[in-house]
Amino acid sequence: MILFFLACAPRIIRYPGPVIGLGREPVAAFRQSVDSPPKKTVRIQPKQGSHIAKAARFFIGVKQLRVGDETYGYHCSGYISAVFAKAGLSVQGSTKNLYTMAKKNGFLSTTPQVGSIVFFDNTYDANKNGKFDDPLSHVAIVEKIYDDGRVSMLHLGSRGIVPLTLNLRQPDLHKDMNGNLQNSFLRVRTSKNDKRPRLAGQLWRGFAFWDIP
Question: Strand 204-208 relative to strand 70-72: parallel, antiparallel, unpaired?
Answer without folding.
Answer: unpaired
